[in-house]
Automatic annotation (TrEMBL):
One of its GO terms (cellular component) is plasma membrane. The chain holds residues 305 to 603 of 660 of the full protein. One of its GO terms (molecular function) is ATP hydrolysis activity. This is Metal-transporting ATPase. The lineage of its organism: Bacteria, Bacillati, Actinomycetota, Actinomycetes, Kitasatosporales. It is found in: Cell membrane. It comes from Streptomyces subrutilus.
């Protein structure tokens, strides 16, 4: 028997490195007319590196001590920034202290108890919001702002509520990101939007490089959902592409959700309708085109 068009399309998608979970999904992929892209791990490779280690004067920490403290708190997190911080500590042959009481807030940061102190590491905008207005907080904001203006993602470290240092991290754009944005715009007739939990400065710089003008930064997971719902309320069928735990609610809310598979979180892979197994962004417009071609054969 010849294979039904949607099933052949699923097989073809597989050749492009995309796992499409059902024939219904294969069909829906061709119906999308708007695209929302996550930044970290989706448009970027998701393997950032620590580029700056800035203990705040007054905290009494060396660079190594600051990095070790952050690594101790980040160890259980599967976030790309957490992996970068623990890798940097390993490279410097540091031995992060044992930590307990781990907690994480998707899109925001982590917390743990290390050596009797509560250590938090996360987005400066969120942590400084909850900091008392002290000299350390003002200085931390300044250091983080300077790093972010340079295109870095800043991670603020607090000890017992007091900022003690800032780390700067940089990630590489995925090859093919700009081409994928162009292809998605052509296929859907609308400009893709960037939805990110990262800071507006780093997000804006990256967006400009790949031709995205609509940037929503500093978003929590539920804000990404709201951005998707807003477009869907305007009658659009939105394709969300993401990789993180923080993207899962938006992947679920979207008309169609696609996860980046290689470094993607389990939750994103389970929630998404399709998975880009080899992490090539070009595969996303490719499967939309495959879906449309298959639908022409079905109808
Ligand atoms: P994106 O939407 O670009 O994938 P996330 O929502 O995962 O980014 O993260 C948003 C921001 O929250 C990060 O830029 C960082 O500032 C902070 N953050 C999230 N998880 C962590 C973590 N484990 N350690 C430090 N910062 C974190
Ligand atoms: Mg991400």
């Amino acid at each position: 028997a010849t294979m039904p068009p949607l099933l052949s399309a699923i097989a073809n998608a597989g050749r492009h490195g995309v796992l499409v979970k059902s024939a219904v999904v294969m069909e829906r992929l061709g119906q999308v007319d708007a695209v929302a892209l996550d930044k970290t791990g989706t448009l970027t490779e998701g393997t950032p590196r620590v580029t700056d280690i800035r203990p705040l004067p007054g905290a009494g920490l060396t660079e190594d001590a600051l990095l070790a403290l952050a690594a101790a708190a980040e160890r259980p997190s599967e976030h790309p920034l957490a992996r970068a911080i623990t890798a940097a500590a390993r490279e410097r042959r540091l031995r992060p202290a044992a930590a307990t009481d781990f907690g994480s807030v998707p899109g925001s940061g982590v917390t743990a108890t290390v050596g009797g102190h509560v250590i938090e590491a996360g987005a400066p905008a969120r942590l400084l919001d909850g900091s008392p207005h002290c000299a350390a907080a003002a200085l931390a904001a300044e250091v983080a702002g300077a790093l972010e203006s340079g295109g870095r993602t800043a991670v603020l470290v607090r000890r017992d509520g007091v900022p003690v240092g800032v780390l700067g991290l940089a990630d590489r754009l995925r090859p093919g990101a700009a081409a994928a944005v162009t292809a998605l715009r052509a296929l859907t007739g609308t400009a893709p939007v960037l939805l990110t939990g990262d800071n507006p400065r780093a997000a804006g710089r990256l967006a400009a490089e790949i031709g995205i003008t609509d940037v929503r930064a500093g978003l929590l997971p539920q804000d990404k959902v709201a951005a998707v719902r807003e477009q869907e309320a305007a009658g659009r069928r939105v394709l969300v592409v993401g990789d993180g735990v923080n993207d899962a609610p938006a992947l679920a809310a979207a008309h169609t959700g696609v996860a980046m598979g290689r470094a993607g979180s389990d939750l994103a892979l389970e929630t998404a309708d399709a998975v880009v197994v080899r992490d090539e962004l070009a595969a996303v417009p490719a499967v939309i085109a495959l879906s449309r071609a298959a639908r022409r054969l079905v109808v």
